[in-house]
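Bug #77: duplicate submission created two jobs. Keeping one. Sequence:
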Amino acid sequence: MPFAWIEYLALARYLQNHEHSSFVQEAALRCAVSRAYYAAFCHSRNYARDHQGFVPNHKGDDQRRIKEHFKTRDVTIAQALQRLREWRNYCDYDDTVPGLIEILPRAITEAQKIFSKL
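Kept job's structure:
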């Protein structure tokens, strides 16, 4: 059975709502933002593949390509994916992420909107 990408969003919510003593809280929050992005991205990719004729190449440029795909179908999804990817990039690559505590609930909300629309 294929993976249910909404489970990544559930994991993001879990990481947001629980104190973590075995590792740094910042790591949990960064991971949650990243999982929210990948939940939304993979769900969008699969929806577009299954219902809109999108053909993923399963390489890194699918992230750009799916955003471009939705620009012509639902610009709000394309914009949400862009915001989520920017936040994910901050969390996965930057040494400091100002406003991380505010970014996470926004990321979860944006990802949920994508699931609700598709």
